[in-house]
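Suppose a colleague, Dr. K., hands you the sequence of a protein chain of 250 amino acids and asks what its three-dimensional shape might be. Before reaching for any lab equipment, you can write down a predicted structure in token form. Begin with the sequence itself:
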Amino acid sequence: MSNAVSVLLLDGQLGALAWSFARAAPGARLGVICVDGAGTPERASMLAALHRRELIAGELVAGAPGGSGKALSAAEALDRGFGELSFDAAVFLAGISMNGQSDPALECAGAASARECDTVLVAQIHSPLADQRQMLSERTLALLDELAEPVTVALPAGIRSPVGRELREGLRSVFDSSARQSQLALGVDRPARIARHDWRRAPVDLVGFAGARVPALDHAPPLLAQPLLYASALAAGSVLAELLHEEEWQ
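The predicted structure, expressed as tokens, is then:
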């Protein structure tokens, strides 16, 4: 049986994902893997608070060496998490690329794919106040384009296409089940590569999440300012649990 893994681009979305996962998979052990080292004291405080709330089962640090020990790779952290720590699912905190290096989220997704894990990329979806169009972040689009293997991308149920106008035509068949136009026939490489991923919609409970007062980073944007950012993480938590249940039945 393979395990379920999510790749998170923003630390601030972790609480929403963990809360949604816990509701969809009661009793399942969700582990956190920080691939850019331990991070800030604020992150450590958030992780400790999530652990106290029993929303995460533990955490591992990969990437940057700590003390005298050898740093774990993303792949080694997965092996340890699913092995001795008995995680049922794991979420990578991918951090950001530094000094022109490749996006660490690519390593995370690659490690999960190499171990035949079902992988969910947590999209960054913003809702610009200027035109009210839902938009995938450029980092999310770049990752969807560059990933070697397809992943699952969760969207909040009822959302419109979260991409810009230049990609909307290329993604028509992803968001409109009645469309029959071939992606390859469009002659546009990037939309076709993005559309190859498994896009899933999931219902989200923003009101319930707001009322739960889940621990978060102090600098994270308010829920009312960027509801889609949190809705995408809530959807990802539900889909991560769904993939875990699918594996149990196979």
